[in-house]
Amino acid sequence: MDLKTFIRDVPDFPKKGIIFKDITTLLKDKKAFKHAVDLMCDQYIDKNIDKVVGIESRGFIFGGIVAYRLGCGMVLARKSGKLPSDKIKEDYALEYGVNSIEIHTDSIEEGENVVIVDDLLATGGTGVAVAKLVERLKGKIIGIEFLIELGFLNGREKLKDYNINSYIYY
């Protein structure tokens, strides 16, 4: 199945010059959505994954389902100020600004096998920030899953030390 055909381009969102890759058109199609989730899960079925870290916000959609399918826990990586308990924070650069991301300090235990999930790999800043948070908590990153990769932004290069998968490439 060519998942790229289910992605809608939205020009000038969230600001002028950006072409937003809208995944809602994929999410509403039951076969495309299932296929995307299956791709994100298949290589981890027998890898004893303890936690899936979903990156806010669209990473929550895929991360929750991947965690359920793998029979493991789900961890939220949220924008700064959104988590209620003790947390650690990492700053990162976006393709159109700067932000911070946090996870709870008790969300990952030392030695746990972790898969990070998000919808889009752009500059790699968010993925690197979340990987640093997981490693600060002494989790072992088994893989990082992205639905879409914007190859022209070279984000994969920043994550070259990790097993990365993406399924739609621009």
Number of strands: 9
Class by SSE composition: alpha/beta
Q: What is the CATH-assigned architecture?
A: 3-Layer(aba) Sandwich
Structural domain tally: 1
Please supply descriptive tags for the structure shown above:
alpha/beta, 9 strands, single chain, Rossmann fold, seven-stranded mixed β-sheet
Structure description:
With 170 residues, this protein is α/β, with parallel strands linked by helices. It has a single domain (45-169), classed as Rossmann fold (3-Layer(aba) Sandwich). 27% of the residues lie in helices and 36% in strands. The protein has five helices and nine strands; from the N terminus they run E-E-H-H-E-H-E-E-E-E-H-E-H-E. The strands form two sheets. Strands 5-6-4-3-7-8-9 form a seven-stranded mixed β-sheet, with helices on both faces. Strand 1 (8-11) and strand 2 form a beta hairpin. Helix 2 crosses helix 3 (58-70). It is globular and about 40 Å long.
